[in-house]
Amino acid sequence: MRENNEDRPAAPAAESASEPDAGTVALDKDAAPGEVLLKVTGLQKHFPIRKGVLQRQVGSVKAVDGIDFDVRSGETLGVVGESGCGKSTMGRLITRLLEPTAGTVEFEGRDITHLGVRGMRPMRRDVQMIFQDPYSSLNPRHTVGAIVSAPFKLQGVTPEGGVKKEVQRLLEVVGLNPEHYNRYPHEFSGGQRQRIGIARALALKPKLVVADEPVSALDVSIQAQVVNLLDDLQQEMGLTYVIIAHDLSVIRHVSDRIAVMYLGKIVELADRKSLYESPMHPYTNALLSAVPVPDPRRRAAKSERILLRGDVPSPIAPPSGCRFHTRCWKATEICKTAEPPLIPLATGHQVACHHPENAEDQAPQDTVLLTAAVEAAEAAGVEVPETAVPDASKAEATEA
Ligand SMILES: Nc1ncnc2c1ncn2[C@@H]1O[C@H](COP(=O)(O)OP(=O)(O)OP(=O)(O)O)[C@@H](O)[C@H]1O
Ligand code: SF4
Ligand SMILES: [Mg+2]
């Protein structure tokens, strides 16, 4: 972890001499390892849906719908969830590429939620993003040199020794040949292109890097190389990462903590060991049971696969109560009517569930499953006690 800003490329005189405007943040202090670097509170992004000649708003896509989490300096926070659950939107909100509908984003203790372009300029150096698709995120008409040097130009920064020398150094750092400075993206493989994207993200020595599915577009054989590169760079440069993935296998070895998202919400947040060894949210359990087990001796033990029924519901009209109740094999009436808050149920382990696994039931009085839950339980191969079956309990009540 860096202790100060001295190793950064010098800002141009005009920029550093100018008086900060009302919204400008002065980044004069690095967070010490383990301190909160980024704090997100009640963050929401609702994309309006407009129709008709007058473009009236008729609804909204609740892509991110009230999330809270911290990212500590030097750590890797993994974020997982199925396609469309709001991961990329969350990444773009915390890097301030998107304006939030509600909530706050604090970076090093300063509120950056609504900073304008000028106010965001110093912050842009500290927070960088690696994009999901290495094929579309690099301009095909620009050389690698132009792509990796763009952040210096945008920030008006001249590194020591000049831009070209620094770009060639960066290419070497990410495992590319510095002689390829004048080549174009199409001359590189997918893995190499992602390395170019990584070099560009690291150019200004950022503190926080948000990597949106950095390896999902790559061959499995290349994925490990890029993940290992990110890991090595973190050790060397003291980087803090938020790594987004759609399954738990990619981030397994690199994350210190993991947030599991479902339909715009965080449903579980825990350190890696707790999450993999004793997941508490049924959805996490389902995601984990879909993770392939590489060791053939352990594969048999992992044969109980929990199959998720149906598709993810629409974020335009998410289900009431717990959003997972339409697919959960443990859902009862309270799951349909009351939204479970994300609360700590063990040290460093937060869960949003009325009937968590490996923990005390939060709604012990509510034991009768929803009809859809019984069907989901059957599909998932989960045993349902007689008393939890809806009709059986009704019959019991009538008898009483
Ligand atoms: N600019 C936009 N306008 C309207 N809706 C959007 C916009 N961007 C994203 N969405 C919607 O918001 C929801 C969340 O999208 P997002 O891209 O954040 O999901 P994701 O978890 O990253 O998915 P994937 O794994 O497929 O990348 C989706 O329903 C998507 O269609
Ligand atoms: S048990 Fe209820 S609250 Fe918990 S995940 Fe299932 S539906 Fe949601
Ligand atoms: Mg995405």
From TrEMBL:
SUPFAM superfamilies reported for this sequence: P-loop containing nucleoside triphosphate hydrolases (SSF52540)
Q: Which Pfam families match?
A: ABC_tran (PF00005), oligo_HPY (PF08352)
- Report domain ABC transporter positions: 49-288
Is the keyword Nucleotide-binding in the record? yes
**GO molecular function, one example?**
ATP binding
Q: Tell me the segments the record calls region Disordered.
A: 1-23, 381-400
The UniProt record lists the keyword Glycosyltransferase: no
Compositional bias, Low complexity, is annotated for: 10-22, 381-390
Keywords of the record, alphabetical order, are:
ATP-binding, Nucleotide-binding, Transport
Q: Entry's InterPro entries?
A: AAA+_ATPase (IPR003593), ABC_transp_ATP-bind (IPR050319), ABC_transporter-like_ATP-bd (IPR003439), ABC_transporter-like_CS (IPR017871), Oligopep_ABC_C (IPR013563), P-loop_NTPase (IPR027417)
Q: Which Gene3D superfamilies match?
A: P-loop containing nucleotide triphosphate hydrolases (3.40.50.300)
Spell out the family assignment given in the record's similarity comment. Answer: Belongs to the ABC transporter superfamily.
Its recorded name reads Dipeptide ABC transporter ATP-binding protein
